[in-house]
Amino acid sequence: QVQLVESGGGLVQPGGSLRLSCVVSLSIRSIYTMGWYRQPPGKQRELVARITSGGSTKYEDSVKGRFTISRDNAKNTVYLQMNSLKPEDTAVYYCNEVPIGIADARGWGQGTQVTVSS
Fold first, then answer.
1. Pairing relation of β-strands 33-39 and 46-52?
2. Cα torsion 37, 40, 46, 51: sign
3. CA dihedral defined by 65, 39, 24, 17, rounded to 10 degrees?
4. How far is it, in rounded angstroms, from Cα 13 to Cα 116?
5. Could you report the per-residue pLDDT of 28-74, keeping only the tens digit for each?
6. Which residues pair with 94 in a beta bridge?
């Protein structure tokens, strides 16, 4: 079973930045679309950013212009640069394949907690 290890979360003030990393235990070259999902407290998991193997990206409206997703296939790693963070970005962040149905079948990592608060 694939392992996904997310890291880089923490407590940050509004307006601050964080860079999340996700190391995947298998080669991601063959995975067409990778994404970052988040699950706010008491809410469902949602996809916030995705990137194809060719480097095309797409973002959920609330994070456009603030978040940047990237991938390093040689390192089997996916990144999420988060700038201008807001309290509503508070959530556990996960990386996985897109769409979520395939992600559910692969299984999820432990995620990394991001808390935006003054």
1. antiparallel
2. negative
3. 40
4. 5
5. 888 889 999 999 999 999 999 999 999 999 999 999 999 999 999 99
6. 37
Which residues fall within 8 angstroms of residue 104, CB to CB, at 6 or more apart? none
List the beta bridge partners of residue 71: 78
Of 28-32, 54-58, 91-95, 100-104, minimum mean pLDDT range? 28-32
On whether the CB atoms of residues 53 and 32 are closer than 8 A, the answer is: yes
Helices (H), the chain: 100-106
**Which of the 8 DSSP states describes residue 81?**
E
- How does DSSP classify residue 104? H
